[in-house]
Amino acid sequence: MSQRSSSTFENECQKPFALSSVFRPGLFEGRVAIVTGGGTGIGKAIAKELLFLGCTVVIASRKKDRLASGAEEIRTWLTHTGQQATLHVLQCNIRNEEEVKSLISTTVLTYGKLDFLINNGGGQFISNTAEIRLKGWNAVVETNLTGTFLMCREAYNQWMKHHGGVIVNMAMDMWKGSPLMGHSGAARAGVVNLTKTLGVEWAQSNVRVNCVAPGSSIVSPTAAANYGDLNVFDGIGATIPMKRTGTVEEVSSAVCFLLSPGASFITGETIRIDGGQSFYTTPTYSLPDSKPTDKYSWQSCFDAEGPEAAKSKL
Ligand SMILES: CCC/C=C/C(=O)SCCNC(=O)CCNC(=O)[C@H](O)C(C)(C)COP(=O)([O-])OP(=O)([O-])OC[C@H]1O[C@@H](n2cnc3c(N)ncnc32)[C@H](O)[C@@H]1OP(=O)([O-])[O-]
Ligand SMILES: NC(=O)C1=CN([C@@H]2O[C@H](COP(=O)(O)OP(=O)(O)OC[C@H]3O[C@@H](n4cnc5c(N)ncnc54)[C@H](OP(=O)(O)O)[C@@H]3O)[C@@H](O)[C@H]2O)C=CC1
């Protein structure tokens, strides 16, 4: 069977061992990557595709049990694909500076290098902004913005500054504001801006820094569980120009492209992966039923205040 062809090793209904990479096998042989949040959802898909392409992958996040079950699934899948690549698991809270330093140094000590950093780990909760407590605001900003900053800084200072490398950050559809996710929208806008800054500052070290921005539409059970509603993605497809939600593999392939030599002249960029959603609607938010706000015009002031009051202002 050709390694390049799309093939399944299991029952079509289960499809756990489907080979899906559009990139050539061996593309990332000899490379070493860290994928934060690599035990679940989008991060797990990225880890799988990198391993499939020959990369050594370290997956890192806060929860040991999620990492362990994710790693077990990935290893079983890898065995069935017939690919050989090294998967390593390290616990790390990206909000904790010491844990971030240790994640990078352990990776460099263990594998002798760090070529790729994928800052996928992150998230938020849904809330009206007026009701977000400071602790909750800080938790989300520290996770998505500060965590990304710490990971980038340590990867650069400990390895990439003198050896080059590629970083891919994670944003979201916050282009038109983020009703019900104000904390995360603000943090991800910061990530997009940080990506541009680092793309410029670190180009001299042969480090490219890019970002992907999935719409609120990439279906994964762990993402849905975070909102306590496994049906959270239902109905979103209808609001997307492509009339469907996205897959974790559709994010992973964009990440692999950005890591690949095919993207060697691209830095500071953010790629939207949202089926056109961000050009069309603001997802997950319907305008509340309310009366129109007050309108301003010279005539409306004149009408409201009367000719005498308006004249007295002249
Ligand atoms: C439509 C789908 C689109 C999908 C998009 C995705 O991104 S999918 C990806 C989806 N995956 C993820 O998002 C995974 C990662 N996400 C997470 O782990 C959490 O969302 C986190 C980032 C808030 C960290 O949480 P943590 O517990 O480790 O942090 P902590 O202990 O430092 O601060 C906790 C404080 O935060 C607040 N607070 C928390 N929840 C709520 C709430 N529901 N309500 C209100 N407030 C809430 C609260 O203030 C609480 O403290 P308090 O006042 O109660 O003492
Ligand atoms: N699914 C979607 O539609 C969209 C997703 N995104 C973003 O894509 C990324 C992946 O999300 P997805 O796979 O869908 O959802 P998941 O909830 O499955 O993934 C979130 C991952 O981040 C890890 N994580 C969270 N906080 C930390 C932390 N402080 N330190 C280290 N790791 C952390 C989690 O692991 P652990 O709990 O073990 O720490 C988990 O593996 C997230 O940044 C998400 O916000 C953006 C737009 C849309």
Automatic annotation (TrEMBL):
Q: What is its main location?
A: other
- The broad enzyme category this protein falls into is oxidoreductase
Q: According to its UniProt record, in which pathway does this protein act? A: Lipid metabolism
Q: Does the keyword Ion transport apply?
A: no
Cellular compartment(s): Peroxisome
**InterPro entries recorded for this chain?**
NAD(P)-bd_dom_sf, Peroxisomal_t2-enoyl-CoA_red, SDR_fam
Its biological purpose is as follows: Participates in chain elongation of fatty acids. Catalyzes the reduction of trans-2-enoyl-CoAs of varying chain lengths from 6:1 to 16:1, having maximum activity with 10:1 CoA. Has no 2,4-dienoyl-CoA reductase activity.
> Subunit structure, briefly?
Interacts with PEX5, probably required to target it into peroxisomes.
Protein name according to UniProt: Peroxisomal trans-2-enoyl-CoA reductase
